[in-house]
Amino acid sequence: MSDLENITVRRTDKAVLRIDYRPTRTTDPIWFLLRSDAHHDNAHTEIDMERRHLEEAKRRGALILDNGDLHCAMQGRWDRRADRSALRPEYQFGNYLDRLVDEAVEFYAPYAPNWCMMGLGNHETAILKHHETNLTERTVERLKLKGAVNLHCTGYAGWVRLMICPKGDRRSVSLWMYRHHGYGGGGPVTRGTIQTSRMAVYLPDADVVWTGHTHDQWILPIERYRVTSADVPYLDRQTHIRTPGYKDEFSPQDGWHTERGGPPKPRGALWMRVWMNRKHKVEYEFTEAR
User: Fold this and answer.
1) In the prediction, which pLDDT does 86 show?
2) 93 DSSP assignment
3) Is the pLDDT confidence value at 185 over 90?
């Protein structure tokens, strides 16, 4: 279980979010709930599952990182995709964009101390483009008033650096994670895994590469053969992950997803546990949040 009092979060660059963790014991782990594509205001979103994962994050002392599209924001009168049946009753008011923020803040406020990052997805950037308001920034501002002292609004993509420096120990380890909300359609067969080969080339410094957007879920490790500055070859691993989201577009058997032949998609998120081992090397592992 992570101790939130031993964690500080700050921006060291527009594209870098740094998390410093000072565990009491060297091998104490830090937990993260990695989520994206919640589409929280959509009628087909599995709110009970989302709440269950947030409650578990609270029990574990996990930091919550969201990689965009927390807001669905598709049901305004201006949107040609709007469908009133996809709108929950609490959003059926004239001040639709305001209600998106109001309801999200009310729902997420009990977990405010655990929130660490809210990124933008394509749904939020569409609202920013056409209506000149950033729903994610508005949500972050309001949650900070509810106790989200570590919460930052990040962009569509960027870096998360985790520094683990145990108390009373001068040694530290880093884990570098590159996160991008995602792009493309995922692919009916590959589910977007082809992108891992492209991203691995231009992201050589990343230990973890995290994407979302297509509502797929996978964990795909890529083993690498490297060499130190002292001419010592060694193996390491870059792990690519994709988080699925909480919206079930398939079960209604109606609407755009069904008409285009869209398949059922997984729902949920991923847990990430990171720790320093006894050899003072960083270790990490992923498990499904279902």
Assistant:
1) 63
2) S
3) no
Residue 146's domain is classified under what CATH number?
3.60.21
Structurally, how many domains does the chain consist of? 1
Q: Residue 213 belongs to what domain range?
A: 4-289
Angle formed by the axes of helices 96-108 and 135-144, nearest 10°:
40
Interatomic CA distance for residues 121 and 37, integer angstroms: 8
> For residue 97, which of 54, 67, 127, 52 has the smallest C-alpha distance?
127
Q: How far is CA 19 from the centre of its chain?
A: 15
**What digits encode the pLDDT tens for the residues 98-107?**
999 999 999 9
The DSSP code sequence of 63-90 is EEEE-S-------STT-TT--GGGB-GG
- Those residues with Cβ within 8 angstroms of residue 239's Cβ, 6 or more apart along the chain or in another chain: 207, 208, 209, 219, 220, 221, 222, 284, 286
Residue 74 to residues 2, 6, 57, 85, 238, Cα–Cα distance (Å): 36, 39, 28, 12, 35
